[in-house]
Amino acid sequence: MSDQIGVTGLAVMGANLARNLARHGHQVVLHNRSRGRTDALVEQHGSEGDFVPTGSVEEFVGALQRPRKIIIMVQAGPATDAVIDEIAPLLDEGDVLMDGGNALFTDTIRRTEALTARGLHFVGTGISGGEEGALNGPSIMPGGSKEAYELVGPLLESIAAVVDGEPCCTHVGASGAGHFVKMVHNGIEYADMQLIAEAYDLLRQGLELTPAEIGDVFAGWNEGDLESYLIEITAQVLRHTDAESGGPFVDIVLDEAEQKGTGRWTVQSALDLGVPVSGIAEAVFARALSGHREQRQAAQKVLPGPDRQWDEQVADKDAFIESVRQALYASKVVAYAQGFDQITQGADHHGWDIDRAALAKIWRGGCIIRARFLDRISQVFTDEPDVTTLLTNDYFRGAVSEGQESWRQVVAGAARHGVPVPGFASALAYYDGLRAERLPAALIQGLRDLFGAHTYRRTDREGSFHTMWGEDGREVQTG
Ligand code: 6PG
């Protein structure tokens, strides 16, 4: 069914999304702050479909039939507010304004409230897959009211990636739910990439393989449980040769990982929710550490550590590669389990009805973290909607425990040889923390009670208690 939509903001993501919409038979009314981009798009790709170029915002809004459907594709933050402020006064009740940028979900909540009060629909939608995905089929995570989704859902579904005949687009939940899950998607993306980078580093340091050889290892891994877009492109990047130096591309890239902020937002939100997303946090901090060049250079000169020779592993190269693979898979399962925990808690906190099985399904295609095992994650949430952590599900428990010995060896070996593996190590610590019968948190409670009379609960009876530490050590019940 063909429809009509307005796209404002025609930088690469917006232009590609507009082309994708046009290619699917929709009439696309175009607008950009400066007219040049609009004209360039029509000139270069006008033959791909039905484009209606417009100049002013008034002309743009005027060219759309009611209820108008508009998607904003500009930079997240103040630029998005500026566009909304310009367009919203020109709209009529029942029109739908969508924001396809990487907005902070709390901004989306604020905008939804303000626009709903004016009788407009606002759909904050996560769109993943980069420029390529926008053009050929992204994963789309729209939030907003059911009514709004009825108006724009079919249109969005028509341009999304398709896996097993199903579009990678689903109504995530009300208000900021779409941008919330997109944020967590990006957090998981950070964790996943950090783990991949650690696996590469271990193979490089432990076996002294060349980047191209490690690229081959990743290509092999992409045939199994680890099959995913990120593993696939890791092979591609590692096999790439720098034209100028003739050496491995990865060796001429400055080793300082940048970030636009969505990973940091995920951790900030997780801190507020009290959800331990240690894999994502370690990934954000590892990027931060990589950027502290001065500290790194100062430390490099003086901080002692083990010599990085990894002789005992070289003896059994294949076994080492397999151990790293298992450690990577186990750590990855932990990172995804933590990300889904954040979604569960976030949904609870904000009162969003997020179908995690449907969400895992729409992440199977189009998006950056698309991976074979998302099928399994989806299945878990279908079969066990009350599961408390993905890790207790039979399949994931089996996968992790099967690789457990290797995981421990790899983390211990990395520590012994001075190779930083914050992602692998924190994932293992999380796993052990979850499974521990007793945690040293009891001691922390005792300390808090001693210095601040913060009280504690007992294992043997209800209530809260305080010990008179400064007096006779007597215990009193406080609640
Ligand atoms: C996506 C990506 C995208 C993100 C980039 C860069 O889903 O298509 O998540 O939204 O902007 O991956 O993110 P960083 O610059 O923060 O690494």
UniProtKB/TrEMBL annotation:
Residues involved in NADP(+) binding: G9, L10, A11, V12, M13, G14, N32, R33, S34, V74, Q75, A76, N102
Any GO BP annotation: D-gluconate metabolic process
Keywords, alphabetical: Gluconate utilization, NADP, Oxidoreductase, Pentose shunt
Pathway of action: Carbohydrate degradation; pentose phosphate pathway; D-ribulose 5-phosphate from D-glucose 6-phosphate (oxidative stage): step 3/3
Residue ranges annotated for the 6-phosphogluconate dehydrogenase C-terminal domain, each copy included: 178-470
SMART domains found in the cross-reference section: 6PGD
Catalyzed reactions: 6-phospho-D-gluconate + NADP(+) = D-ribulose 5-phosphate + CO2 + NADPH
Positions bound to substrate: N102, S128, G129, G130, H185, N186, Y190, K260, R287, R448, H454
Molecular-function GO term, any one: NADP binding
A Pfam family: NAD_binding_2
Active site: residue positions: K182, E189
E.C. numbers: 1.1.1.44
Family classification: Belongs to the 6-phosphogluconate dehydrogenase family.
Function: Catalyzes the oxidative decarboxylation of 6-phosphogluconate to ribulose 5-phosphate and CO(2), with concomitant reduction of NADP to NADPH.
Subunit comment: Homodimer.
NCBIfam families: gnd, PRK09287.1
Protein name (Swiss-Prot/TrEMBL): 6-phosphogluconate dehydrogenase, decarboxylating
Phylogenetic lineage: Bacteria, Bacillati, Actinomycetota, Actinomycetes, Geodermatophilales
